[in-house]
């Protein structure tokens, strides 16, 4: 696609998103103003109220009030959770009229409103009990030190904690055909291979998708996955990978998956 067509495509997409977003961006602006945090924290919600509630509790314990971007949840339990969080003031809830997906915060109508430095996360994490109170500030300093778009939490896979029997299939056609099936542990092991020098923290050069991270817009160079991961007290668990501690029951997960087809992980049979 030539440059002119690319520009036209981007412009049309931006216009469509602006129309579909409706008054969502205005609601987000009000929510950001209400929390008055140097580094606001956004949580993405869609039929995952049990995760949103749990993550909000963890953030509140760290002195933070999250902004919840809800992708038009249809699940009654999630709707009830959002009402309670909004009424209690434990979170600022922005209700959208459309399911924009797990990267909603990075779509133009919403991303344009965010400050230069912000945090965003899926809510399905168990944070480290030793997480520093100033972890957002520290993550931002790490991003600045290595000049990366984001600095995020490392995903821990303790040897004594059961992991789901799932597979990620990686297929490449260029420059030559490649196909490999990874278990969760095999896939995640790749992200612990490149330690970086830091005076006090355990830092690794590794991509981050939508696990909790601090972003600095000014350091974006066109690569969404440009990142480092911080371990030690910053390690966290991705709850869906660990049945023993996961908060979703079978019915809740079924409702969630009906509107979320983004996972690359396949359950083995």
Architecture overview:
This protein has one domain: Spore Coat Polysaccharide Biosynthesis Protein SpsA, Chain A. The protein is built from eight helices and 14 strands. It has helices at 3-21, 24-35, 49-61, 76-88, 108-111, 135-146, 184-189, 250-258, and strands at residues 41-45, 67-70, 92-95, 117-121, 125-127, 150-153, 166-172, 178-183, 195-196, 203-205, 213-216, 227-230, 236-238, 265-267. The strands form three sheets. It has a nine-stranded mixed β-sheet with strand order 3-2-1-4-11-6-12-10-9, sandwiched between helices. The termini are far apart. The model has no long low-confidence stretch (mean pLDDT 93).
| Mean of all residue-level pLDDT scores | 93
Number of alpha- plus pi-helical segments: 8
Sheet with the most strands?
9 strands, mixed
In the CATH scheme, the class would be: Alpha Beta
Distance between the termini: 41 Å
CATH architecture: Alpha-Beta Complex
Task: Looking at this protein, list some descriptive labels.
single chain; 269 residues; alpha/beta; Spore Coat Polysaccharide Biosynthesis Protein SpsA, Chain A; nine-stranded mixed β-sheet; 8 helices
Write the layout of secondary structure elements.
Layout: H1 3-21, H2 24-35, E1 41-45, H3 49-61, E2 67-70, H4 76-88, E3 92-95, H5 108-111, E4 117-121, E5 125-127, H6 135-146, E6 150-153, E7 166-172, E8 178-183, H7 184-189, E9 195-196, E10 203-205, E11 213-216, E12 227-230, E13 236-238, H8 250-258, E14 265-267
Parallel strand pairs: 1-2, 1-4, 2-3, 6-12
Antiparallel strand pairs: 4-11, 5-13, 6-11, 7-8, 7-14, 9-10, 10-12
Helix pairs in contact: 3-4
């Amino acid at each position: 696609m030539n440059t002119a067509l690319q520009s036209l495509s981007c412009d049309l997409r931006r216009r469509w998103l602006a129309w579909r977003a409706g008054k969502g961006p205005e609601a987000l602006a009000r929510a950001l103003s209400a929390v008055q945090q140097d580094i606001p924290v956004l949580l993405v919600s869609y039929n995952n109220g049990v995760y949103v509630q749990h993550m909000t509790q963890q953030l509140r314990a760290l002195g933070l009030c999250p902004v919840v971007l809800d992708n038009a949840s249809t699940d009654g339990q999630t709707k009830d959770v959002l009402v309670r969080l909004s009424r209690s003031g434990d979170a600022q809830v922005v209700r959208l009229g459309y399911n924009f997906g797990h990267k909603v915060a990075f779509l133009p109508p919403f991303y344009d409103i965010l400050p230069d430095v912000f945090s965003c996360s899926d809510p399905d994490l168990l944070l480290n009990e030793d997480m520093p109170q100033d972890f957002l500030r520290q993550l931002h300093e790490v991003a600045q030190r290595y000049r990366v778009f984001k600095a995020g939490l490392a995903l821990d896979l303790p040897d004594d904690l059961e992991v789901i029997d799932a597979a990620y299939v990686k297929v490449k056609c260029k420059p030559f055909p490649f196909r490999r099936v990874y278990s969760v542990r095999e896939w995640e092991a790749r992200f612990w291979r490149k330690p970086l020098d830091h005076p006090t923290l355990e830092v690794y050069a590794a991509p981050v998708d939508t696990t909790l991270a601090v972003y600095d817009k000014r350091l974006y160079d066109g690569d969404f996955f440009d990142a480092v991961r911080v371990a030690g007290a910053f390690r966290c668990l991705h709850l869906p990978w660990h049945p023993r501690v996961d908060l979703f029951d079978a019915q809740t997960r079924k409702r969630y998956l009906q509107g979320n087809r983004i996972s690359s992980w396949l359950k083995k049979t």
